[in-house]
Specification:
The chain is of the alpha/beta class. The protein is built from 10 helices and 7 strands. It holds the Pfam family adh_short_C2.
Length: 267
Protein backbone atom coordinates (compact mmCIF):
# COMPACT_ATOMS: atom_id res chain seq x y z
CA UNK A 1 0.00 0.00 0.00
CA UNK A 2 1.44 3.32 -1.10
CA UNK A 3 0.55 5.26 2.07
CA UNK A 4 2.48 2.88 4.36
CA UNK A 5 6.10 3.44 5.31
CA UNK A 6 8.25 0.46 4.35
CA UNK A 7 9.65 -1.81 7.06
CA UNK A 8 13.17 -0.92 5.95
CA UNK A 9 12.46 2.77 6.55
CA UNK A 10 10.74 2.10 9.90
CA UNK A 11 13.77 0.20 11.21
CA UNK A 12 16.31 2.64 9.80
CA UNK A 13 18.02 4.66 12.54
CA UNK A 14 20.27 6.65 10.23
CA UNK A 15 20.76 10.25 11.45
CA UNK A 16 19.77 9.20 14.98
CA UNK A 17 22.14 9.59 17.92
CA UNK A 18 21.87 7.02 20.71
CA UNK A 19 23.42 6.94 24.19
CA UNK A 20 23.99 3.46 25.65
CA UNK A 21 25.27 2.94 29.19
CA UNK A 22 27.05 -0.27 30.12
CA UNK A 23 27.84 -0.61 26.44
CA UNK A 24 30.96 -2.79 26.43
CA UNK A 25 29.64 -6.19 27.47
CA UNK A 26 26.58 -8.41 27.60
CA UNK A 27 23.23 -6.85 26.80
CA UNK A 28 24.69 -3.36 26.33
CA UNK A 29 27.18 -4.52 23.74
CA UNK A 30 24.49 -6.54 21.97
CA UNK A 31 22.36 -3.40 21.80
CA UNK A 32 25.26 -1.38 20.40
CA UNK A 33 25.76 -3.93 17.62
CA UNK A 34 22.11 -4.00 16.55
CA UNK A 35 21.70 -0.22 16.63
CA UNK A 36 24.91 0.33 14.69
CA UNK A 37 23.63 -2.19 12.14
CA UNK A 38 20.42 -0.11 11.93
CA UNK A 39 22.50 2.99 11.19
CA UNK A 40 22.41 4.93 14.47
CA UNK A 41 25.41 6.97 15.55
CA UNK A 42 26.42 5.92 19.06
CA UNK A 43 27.61 7.40 22.33
CA UNK A 44 28.95 4.53 24.41
CA UNK A 45 29.38 4.81 28.18
CA UNK A 46 31.34 2.49 30.46
CA UNK A 47 33.80 2.80 33.34
CA UNK A 48 36.70 1.25 31.43
CA UNK A 49 38.20 3.26 28.58
CA UNK A 50 40.09 0.15 27.50
CA UNK A 51 36.82 -1.75 27.08
CA UNK A 52 35.28 1.20 25.26
CA UNK A 53 38.19 1.34 22.80
CA UNK A 54 37.89 -2.38 22.16
CA UNK A 55 34.14 -2.14 21.58
CA UNK A 56 34.53 0.81 19.22
CA UNK A 57 37.07 -1.19 17.21
CA UNK A 58 34.71 -4.16 17.03
CA UNK A 59 31.93 -1.89 15.73
CA UNK A 60 34.16 -0.28 13.10
CA UNK A 61 32.63 -2.44 10.35
CA UNK A 62 29.48 -0.31 10.57
CA UNK A 63 29.45 3.09 8.87
CA UNK A 64 28.39 5.04 11.95
CA UNK A 65 30.03 7.62 14.16
CA UNK A 66 30.99 6.28 17.60
CA UNK A 67 31.92 8.41 20.60
CA UNK A 68 33.06 6.91 23.89
CA UNK A 69 32.97 8.29 27.42
CA UNK A 70 34.41 6.76 30.56
CA UNK A 71 31.89 7.58 33.32
CA UNK A 72 31.45 6.33 36.87
CA UNK A 73 27.67 6.19 37.01
CA UNK A 74 27.73 5.95 40.81
CA UNK A 75 29.02 9.52 40.83
CA UNK A 76 26.49 12.24 39.92
CA UNK A 77 29.27 14.75 39.28
CA UNK A 78 30.69 12.39 36.63
CA UNK A 79 27.27 12.16 35.00
CA UNK A 80 26.85 15.94 34.93
CA UNK A 81 30.35 16.28 33.49
CA UNK A 82 29.45 13.82 30.73
CA UNK A 83 26.45 15.91 29.70
CA UNK A 84 28.54 19.08 29.75
CA UNK A 85 31.12 17.36 27.53
CA UNK A 86 28.44 16.61 24.93
CA UNK A 87 28.43 20.29 24.04
CA UNK A 88 25.54 21.20 21.75
CA UNK A 89 24.72 17.63 20.77
CA UNK A 90 21.11 16.57 21.32
CA UNK A 91 20.76 12.77 21.36
CA UNK A 92 17.56 11.17 20.03
CA UNK A 93 17.62 7.97 22.09
CA UNK A 94 18.75 7.13 25.62
CA UNK A 95 19.24 3.51 26.68
CA UNK A 96 20.00 3.04 30.37
CA UNK A 97 21.43 -0.45 30.49
CA UNK A 98 24.25 -0.33 33.07
CA UNK A 99 23.62 -2.17 36.31
CA UNK A 100 25.34 -4.09 39.08
CA UNK A 101 24.04 -6.99 41.14
CA UNK A 102 26.36 -8.24 43.89
CA UNK A 103 24.75 -11.30 45.42
CA UNK A 104 24.15 -11.01 49.16
CA UNK A 105 21.34 -12.11 51.43
CA UNK A 106 19.27 -9.34 53.01
CA UNK A 107 20.96 -9.43 56.43
CA UNK A 108 24.44 -9.81 54.92
CA UNK A 109 24.32 -6.74 52.66
CA UNK A 110 26.20 -3.82 54.21
CA UNK A 111 24.75 -0.36 53.72
CA UNK A 112 27.64 0.96 51.63
CA UNK A 113 27.19 -1.81 49.05
CA UNK A 114 23.42 -1.33 49.12
CA UNK A 115 23.88 2.39 48.44
CA UNK A 116 26.22 1.70 45.51
CA UNK A 117 23.62 -0.59 43.92
CA UNK A 118 20.99 2.13 44.29
CA UNK A 119 23.39 4.78 42.95
CA UNK A 120 24.30 2.82 39.81
CA UNK A 121 21.00 1.09 39.08
CA UNK A 122 18.49 3.80 40.00
CA UNK A 123 20.00 7.20 40.84
CA UNK A 124 22.16 7.17 37.69
CA UNK A 125 19.13 6.30 35.57
CA UNK A 126 17.26 9.21 37.14
CA UNK A 127 20.14 11.60 36.44
CA UNK A 128 20.60 10.40 32.86
CA UNK A 129 16.86 10.71 32.16
CA UNK A 130 16.71 14.14 33.81
CA UNK A 131 19.52 15.55 31.69
CA UNK A 132 18.20 13.90 28.52
CA UNK A 133 14.62 15.17 28.94
CA UNK A 134 15.78 18.66 29.85
CA UNK A 135 18.00 18.82 26.76
CA UNK A 136 15.16 17.60 24.55
CA UNK A 137 12.75 20.19 25.95
CA UNK A 138 15.31 23.00 25.70
CA UNK A 139 15.62 22.15 22.01
CA UNK A 140 11.87 21.54 21.50
CA UNK A 141 12.62 18.05 20.29
CA UNK A 142 11.04 14.65 20.88
CA UNK A 143 12.99 11.59 21.93
CA UNK A 144 12.96 8.04 23.17
CA UNK A 145 14.02 6.56 26.52
CA UNK A 146 14.42 2.84 26.96
CA UNK A 147 15.41 1.59 30.38
CA UNK A 148 16.62 -1.94 31.05
CA UNK A 149 14.94 -3.33 34.15
CA UNK A 150 14.78 -6.90 35.40
CA UNK A 151 12.29 -9.59 36.30
CA UNK A 152 13.44 -8.96 39.88
CA UNK A 153 11.44 -5.71 39.71
CA UNK A 154 8.17 -7.66 39.72
CA UNK A 155 8.98 -11.06 41.22
CA UNK A 156 11.88 -12.29 43.39
CA UNK A 157 13.55 -14.81 41.11
CA UNK A 158 16.48 -15.80 43.29
CA UNK A 159 17.77 -15.27 46.80
CA UNK A 160 20.34 -12.58 47.51
CA UNK A 161 19.05 -9.85 45.18
CA UNK A 162 16.78 -7.77 47.41
CA UNK A 163 18.84 -4.64 46.79
CA UNK A 164 18.82 -5.25 43.04
CA UNK A 165 15.07 -5.83 42.96
CA UNK A 166 14.45 -2.58 44.83
CA UNK A 167 16.60 -0.63 42.38
CA UNK A 168 14.91 -2.11 39.32
CA UNK A 169 11.41 -1.60 40.72
CA UNK A 170 12.37 2.06 41.05
CA UNK A 171 13.42 2.12 37.40
CA UNK A 172 10.01 0.79 36.36
CA UNK A 173 8.22 3.50 38.38
CA UNK A 174 10.52 6.22 37.06
CA UNK A 175 9.95 5.14 33.45
CA UNK A 176 6.18 5.21 33.73
CA UNK A 177 6.16 8.63 35.42
CA UNK A 178 8.32 10.08 32.65
CA UNK A 179 6.05 8.54 30.02
CA UNK A 180 2.98 10.11 31.60
CA UNK A 181 4.47 13.55 32.16
CA UNK A 182 6.27 14.05 28.86
CA UNK A 183 4.16 12.20 26.30
CA UNK A 184 2.72 15.51 25.11
CA UNK A 185 6.31 16.60 24.35
CA UNK A 186 6.69 13.60 22.01
CA UNK A 187 9.04 11.93 24.48
CA UNK A 188 8.44 8.21 24.85
CA UNK A 189 9.70 6.09 27.76
CA UNK A 190 9.50 2.32 28.12
CA UNK A 191 11.21 -0.38 30.14
CA UNK A 192 12.26 -3.90 29.18
CA UNK A 193 12.51 -6.65 31.81
CA UNK A 194 15.13 -9.19 30.70
CA UNK A 195 15.11 -12.58 32.34
CA UNK A 196 17.52 -15.50 32.28
CA UNK A 197 20.07 -13.94 29.93
CA UNK A 198 23.60 -15.33 29.77
CA UNK A 199 26.01 -12.41 30.16
CA UNK A 200 29.45 -11.79 31.64
CA UNK A 201 27.77 -10.26 34.67
CA UNK A 202 25.71 -13.38 35.23
CA UNK A 203 28.82 -15.52 34.98
CA UNK A 204 30.46 -13.39 37.67
CA UNK A 205 28.35 -15.28 40.15
CA UNK A 206 31.29 -17.67 40.14
CA UNK A 207 32.26 -16.57 43.66
CA UNK A 208 28.77 -17.46 44.76
CA UNK A 209 29.18 -20.76 42.94
CA UNK A 210 32.30 -21.53 44.95
CA UNK A 211 30.39 -20.82 48.18
CA UNK A 212 27.32 -22.87 47.24
CA UNK A 213 27.78 -24.77 43.97
CA UNK A 214 24.77 -27.02 44.43
CA UNK A 215 22.54 -24.06 45.30
CA UNK A 216 23.47 -22.19 42.13
CA UNK A 217 23.10 -25.28 39.97
CA UNK A 218 19.66 -25.85 41.49
CA UNK A 219 18.63 -22.21 40.89
CA UNK A 220 19.74 -22.36 37.25
CA UNK A 221 18.05 -25.71 36.68
CA UNK A 222 14.79 -24.56 38.26
CA UNK A 223 14.80 -21.33 36.24
CA UNK A 224 15.36 -23.12 32.96
CA UNK A 225 12.69 -25.72 33.77
CA UNK A 226 10.16 -22.92 34.21
CA UNK A 227 10.91 -21.37 30.81
CA UNK A 228 8.29 -22.32 28.18
CA UNK A 229 10.89 -21.73 25.47
CA UNK A 230 13.22 -24.15 27.25
CA UNK A 231 16.44 -22.17 26.83
CA UNK A 232 18.48 -19.44 28.47
CA UNK A 233 18.40 -16.10 26.64
CA UNK A 234 21.27 -14.42 24.82
CA UNK A 235 22.09 -10.71 24.74
CA UNK A 236 20.87 -10.49 21.15
CA UNK A 237 17.40 -11.64 22.26
CA UNK A 238 17.18 -8.43 24.27
CA UNK A 239 18.93 -6.29 21.64
CA UNK A 240 16.36 -7.20 18.99
CA UNK A 241 13.50 -6.05 21.22
CA UNK A 242 15.43 -2.87 22.01
CA UNK A 243 15.61 -2.17 18.28
CA UNK A 244 11.84 -2.55 18.07
CA UNK A 245 11.31 -0.18 21.00
CA UNK A 246 13.61 2.60 19.78
CA UNK A 247 12.42 2.48 16.19
CA UNK A 248 9.15 3.63 14.64
CA UNK A 249 7.83 0.08 15.01
CA UNK A 250 6.80 1.14 18.53
CA UNK A 251 5.72 4.70 17.73
CA UNK A 252 2.43 4.31 19.67
CA UNK A 253 3.96 2.67 22.76
CA UNK A 254 4.97 4.54 25.90
CA UNK A 255 4.90 3.69 29.59
CA UNK A 256 5.08 -0.01 28.76
CA UNK A 257 6.78 -2.66 30.88
CA UNK A 258 7.85 -5.45 28.53
CA UNK A 259 9.20 -8.80 29.75
CA UNK A 260 11.74 -10.48 27.47
CA UNK A 261 12.14 -13.62 29.53
CA UNK A 262 11.48 -16.75 27.51
CA UNK A 263 7.98 -16.86 29.00
CA UNK A 264 9.12 -17.06 32.66
CA UNK A 265 6.39 -14.75 33.99
CA UNK A 266 3.68 -16.66 32.18
CA UNK A 267 4.55 -20.04 33.67
Amino acid sequence: MKDLTSINEILNLKNKLTIITGATAGIGKGIAVRLAEAGSDLILISRSQEDLDKTREELSEYSVNIQTFSVDLANKDNIDEFWNNLGEQVPDILINNAGIFPIAKFLDMNYEEFQRVIDVNLNAVYSMCFNFVRRLKDNKKGGNILNIGSLEAVVPVREGLTHYGISKAGVVALTREIAREFGSDNIRANVILPGGVMTRGAMQGSTEFLKDPFGMIKDTYNFKQRLPLGRIGQPDDIAKMVLVMVSELSSYITGAVIPVDGGFLSS
